[in-house]
């Protein structure tokens, strides 16, 4: 296969091939007989979902774009031929990533040559030196300029990147740094997509449920996000001020406008070009610094960049004493309340029998809504059982004094008893996946409301995100607005948390929760940075 490619080829005509990568949508193979091309074969579960007409339009664009065709193939691994097997479209051919978009890097397992994903650059200087990467501010500006030029060309051709993230964007360290897009079949051409649009966690637009995905406005937002994170050395920040130490005022202003939640207010990437050119002229290159001799300081970047999007959820906070109910039905909160009531009553009875202590009596008079922790309530149990019998058990007969307020008697159960998880429209409420998601989100919601979220990822980043979400509460409920299956096979759940109003921040908050298997069910493994959202 050394001649120019026809628009469609048979799988059998590709000859021998070697697998070089596996992702969430399929597998990539190198062609032994023609190293210029690689073949992406869609996973069997996606073959029927592929919009063949749109995929053919992608292929024709590269052939018919005239003077822009060479530029398109120079900046992206663009589909160049549809591949069929027995008449069924199974994938497509695309150019192999040029060698200049690979980089030799020091990884924890040792030195390796890898795809130069921009995710490596979104870390601080100590991390970069430890990986053997010399990246100065001039290089960052030049990479942004080239990316803005590439986006301008794509938009002129009717192409929107959509899932613009550091996993789908490569960089070169040539004399003039360049960008290179991969996963191009996930882009959108004149409003049409080959497969359903998706977003990489941490790179979602402010309100993905209200804003159309893969438009020039979403590309503008994510370009601004790239600029901020590239200069802040931070993979999660959305604050333009985080980059102002190294980015000049005009570019910080452009970044702030790009991150505007109102799409029409965001400047197109081409409107950055003049400011980037001026910034490049004012920023001389710097010589490489000596690599650090000691370990990386705590909290100064991770030992690896964000995992590639092939496991998008991609990214938790345990604190002492986890409340982890497994809500199997509408009556689970009653059982939690009954168990908590027994424990609380035991503490009250003990307190009433001790006439020398005033602390328990003071606790019982605190107003409702108070958050309790091990410091203020050392005698209250912080752990509730995690497994309950099926059905709704009858509440035990307890000698509860009628003069006590139920909510004051149950300060720990209240956040779970008076909150609920609902399922948004369009989702299959009866599927096992949805039921598992409801159970996991219910457990997480209960934990968030008492500042004890149970997460599998115990990193400082996840701890901070969970704490941020807890600070926005308490929440009276949560609505699951979307469920998808990650490449790992585990569910990812888009959730809108609805504050209770009293003592909470205004408005609702959205996050994407990644679920992990936990015994017979699922629990939340990690969450994306919370963002304001429209209340359901």
From TrEMBL:
<feature type="compositionally biased region" description="Pro residues">
    <location>
        <begin position="285"/>
        <end position="298"/>
    </location>
</feature>
<feature type="region of interest" description="Disordered">
    <location>
        <begin position="282"/>
        <end position="328"/>
    </location>
</feature>
<protein>
    <recommendedName>
        <fullName>Protein kinase domain-containing protein</fullName>
    </recommendedName>
</protein>
<dbReference type="InterPro" id="IPR000719">
    <property type="entry name" value="Prot_kinase_dom"/>
</dbReference>
<feature type="domain" description="Protein kinase">
    <location>
        <begin position="14"/>
        <end position="280"/>
    </location>
</feature>
<dbReference type="InterPro" id="IPR011009">
    <property type="entry name" value="Kinase-like_dom_sf"/>
</dbReference>
